[in-house]
Amino acid sequence: MNDAALREQVAAFAAMTEEILQLAEQGDWDALSVSADRRDAILDQIIEEAGRELLSRLPDLRDTFVALLDKNTRIDTLVSSRQSELALELVPVRQQRLLKQMYRP
After folding, report:
1. pLDDT by residue (tens digit) across 2-57?
2. CA gap 12, 61 in Å, rounded
3. Sequence-distant (≥ 6) Cβ neighbours of residue 89 within 8 angstroms
4. How far is Cα 26 from Cα 105, in angstroms, rounded to an integer?
5. Which of 9, 28, 78, 85 could staple 23 via S-S, CB 3.0–4.6 A?
6. Burial class of 94 by CB neighbour count within 10 A (0 to 12, 13 to 18, 19+)
């Protein structure tokens, strides 16, 4: 892959990251999952092509990746928060399951 194609992949990755952040902010977890899979596929292609040499090949993209890391941190925070909410919602279900098991003959 030449540098122009690699730049296109990075741009696609950045766009997908922005889309995922927006989906996380909206709470659209199903769409986020699909977009995250697509973004992971793009990242795999970038890594396969450039790996650790990406910023050596394209040093001007450093600021882009710093911004992407920030967005990814925000995504992780939103996802973690949602996971905590779901865990709290599951507490009563687990309690009911335990009670049923305790009182089964």
Report:
1. 999 999 999 999 999 999 999 999 999 999 999 999 999 999 999 998 888 888 99
2. 13
3. none
4. 46
5. 28
6. exposed
Q: Which two tokens stand for residue 36?
A: 């995250």
Residue 28, SS3 per DSSP: coil
Query: How far apart are the C-alpha atoms of 39 and 45, rounded to whole Å?
Result: 10
Q: What is the pTM of this model?
A: 0.78
Rounded-to-integer distance, Cα 12 and Cα 33, Å: 17
Gap between the Cα atoms of 16 and 23, Å rounded: 10
Instruction: At 19, list the tokens.
Output: 């889309």
Tokens linked to 24: 């996380």
SS3 of residue 6 by DSSP: helix
**Measured in whole angstroms, how far is the alpha carbon of residue 64 from the centre of its chain?**
17
